[in-house]
Amino acid sequence: MIDVLTEDFRQTPYWWDAAPPEPAAAAIPEATDVAIIGSGYTGLCCAIELAGHGVGTVVLEAGDLGAGASTRSGGMVTGGQKLVVSGATHGIAPERRARLLEDAHESLAMLEQRIADYRLDAEYERYGRLILAHIPRHYERLVRWAELLRRAGSAVSLLSREALAGEVGGTRYHGGLLIEDYGGLHPAKYHRALRRAACDRGAVLASHAAVGAIRRLAEGFEVVTGRGVLRARSVVVGTNGYTGPLIPHLQRRVVPVTAYVIATEPLPPGLPEKLIPHRRMLSDTKRQLYWIRLSPDGTRMIFGARPHLVDTDTQTAARSMHGMLAGVWPELADVRISHCWTGNVAMSVDHLPHMGVHDGIHYALGCNGSGVAMMSYLGQQTARKILGTQNRPCAFDSADFPPFPLYRGWPWFVPLVAAWRRLRDKLESR
Ligand SMILES: Cc1cc2nc3c(=O)[nH]c(=O)nc-3n(C[C@H](O)[C@H](O)[C@H](O)COP(=O)(O)OP(=O)(O)OC[C@H]3O[C@@H](n4cnc5c(N)ncnc54)[C@H](O)[C@@H]3O)c2cc1C
Q: How many domains are contained in the chain?
């Protein structure tokens, strides 16, 4: 039997082939204005804004720069539509909901502006997102979402099963919802470009500098890292799905969930264009995590899911996900998997991202799997808050950041939630 994994199968992100995370041996200074913990999009966008205003900025990263989710993601760029379709904004007072959606739209606009202004090499394009009805009944759900999204200011259109033929080759789906204001990029190239932009503006980026403690001083903070101690007037935490016990208050508010991604070997010529002719970012209406896109060069399928209820090794995950992908397109049954990797998504109880201040320490966390634009934005907003240059408070800046009940750092309930989602998918498919 032919192995579905290529001979040179890698357990690192496909994105790292072109732009791997980097070490940065910069000495940690004794003092700075702002110490930022975490070198993902949150930390870097915060650093770019601060350093660009002449503020002393040091980014402290436990691993290589970019070791976290920012170089591992699907690179799909939303202007907040997920907040609407996930129900996160449901039940929120209309005025606050409008402000949240305004900021979410703004996050996409700012990402596009940042890429254009700084000429970032991120392979960004507005491909559009297509949500596919998994069963006939789910088309009604798409109609409802279309209405909500239109009211929230998104450019959307509904596609019948027949109209899908021009969008998804050989589809077994039952209609779709196309969101136009939705992009895709190369997440690790975007990260590398942000690293360069932060350095160009004078920020110090220090890798392998895990922060083990933050002590309050009469003025400011003492930040204890594995490579030295730093005094800072302000501290920003941007650790998202890698938030550990450093600040238990924050740890109890974001649960890390492991997500799995595979990349195929290059597809036979003509097949990518046949399967996803307009290179849309695809997902479906199942409750289980399930998204598919083409690589920015249009040659490979990139597919994200959580194939098993409990965490597993990447080879096992890759084999299971190969079967799932071939279930969508039988044409892919003979295409092998070249990469499989994992990353941590940070879930919050209310499915909203949050920024704020706890005990004098700034934070921006909780992307719920949609953080390319949003965490870039919240990093920048946190910097503006410190600088005092915000035009208005960010809508995601709220003291109301609920903890997960019965959670102290061991996400025991994640397999149960996954099982419940699968069961509901199965029951609905009957
Ligand atoms: C598999 C996967 C697919 C995704 N797909 C998408 C997508 O398609 N679209 C989208 O919008 N979003 C997606 N996301 C979410 C998105 O990647 C994240 O929201 C975003 O990258 C978070 O950025 P961040 O800077 O907040 O955190 P990260 O990039 O995770 O960075 C946090 C960093 O903090 C460091 N750290 C933690 N503790 C310490 C400490 N004590 N000291 C020093 N450093 C520390 C970590 O090492 C890590 O590097 C995906 C996430 C995953 C995991």
A: 1
Q: Is 256 in the pocket of ligand 1 (CB under 6 A)?
A: no
d(CA 394, CA 82): 18
Query: Would you state the pLDDT for residue 319?
Result: 97
Residue nearest to atom 19 of ligand 1 (CA): 371
Ligand 1 atom nearest 209 alpha carbon:
43
pLDDT of residue 142: 95
Q: Give 34's strand partners.
A: 57, 234
Q: What are phi and psi of 313, to 5 degrees?
A: -80, 160
pLDDT-above-90 percentage for the chain:
84
Question: Is the CB of 285 inside a 6 Å radius of any atom of ligand 1?
Answer: no
- In which domain, by residue range, is 330 found? 5-429
346: domain CATH number?
3.50.50.60
CA distance 64 to 195: 12
Is the C-beta atom of 28 inside 6 A of ligand 1? no
Q: Is 132 in the pocket of ligand 1 (CB under 6 A)?
A: no
Mean pLDDT, residues 48-68: 98
Q: Which residues pair with 131 in a beta bridge?
A: 177, 283
Q: Which residue has the tokens 């002590």?
A: 215
Beta bridge partners of 237: 37, 363
Q: Check if the beta carbon of residue 212 is closer than 8 Å to that of residue 228.
A: no
Q: Which residue has the tokens 């993902």?
A: 40
Contact status, residue 194 vs residue 45, Cβ threshold 8 Å: yes
Q: Tell whether the model's pLDDT for residue 334 goes beyond 60.
A: yes
Entry pTM = 0.96
* Three-state secondary structure call for residue 170: coil
**What is the residue-averaged pLDDT of the chain?**
95
